[in-house]
Sequence to fold (256 residues):
Amino acid sequence: MCSYGMLPILLPVMTYVFWGASLENEWRKLFHRDLPRWLMVDDPSVLAEYYRGEASLYTTRNLTAWLPPLLWWSLVTFVLIFVMLCINIIVRRQWIEHEKLSYPIAEIPLNLVNSNFYSRLMWLGFAIAAGINLINGLHFLHPNLPALAFFKRKYIGYIFTEKPWSALRAMRISFIPSIIGLSFFMPLNLLFSCWFFYFLLARHACFGRNAGLADISGIWSTRLHRPGISWGIPGHSGNRYLAWQTALFSNSQSRV
Fold:
């Protein structure tokens, strides 16, 4: 809900159709009349403060414009969460009692209450992973500070210049110890599925490029590696999918 799959999309949906309207694109004539204004923010002065910044939300005008649509969208979000919880109840018995699935994110807090979990080796691994994230995080906030470049996302698509391999031109690779540590809590068959279907998708992308099917090859280059292009969010072109899959792949090989 809080990732770029929800909130960073919701706010532009509520506002940009009015802020970006111009005489050239004729959005006002094309579909402004069909939009539910109670779900949108259409006040030009409020939109100007939102997109240009240096303004406070806590003014009567801004609160009057923002609160009604936010309340309605909050209701939609709560209903969506409730439906997800209902689906969890339906599949819970099959997943937990029959398939014996593990939940790696939940394993960490459960193990934190186990005294045997706090070994020197655990603290060493935690210190290494946390230190890397801390150093690179500080570098992101303050670029004058040094960074550990080996653990940052690297673009390797430049090596794919000839067809059909050019379909993989958006490929990036990363080595993230914290993700590798999390993958140790996952079942081996799930780890296998992650990297196997990742490379299967790469194969389909190359096949699509070789066959001249731009839509198939575009799944790789835009939807996975450039979500900002396929989902319409300017500036969100980064992708951590390959980092996750690479970490899972290396870990699964070490456990086989």
Observations:
- Residues 1-101 form one domain.
- The CA atoms of residues 20 and 170 lie 29 Å apart.
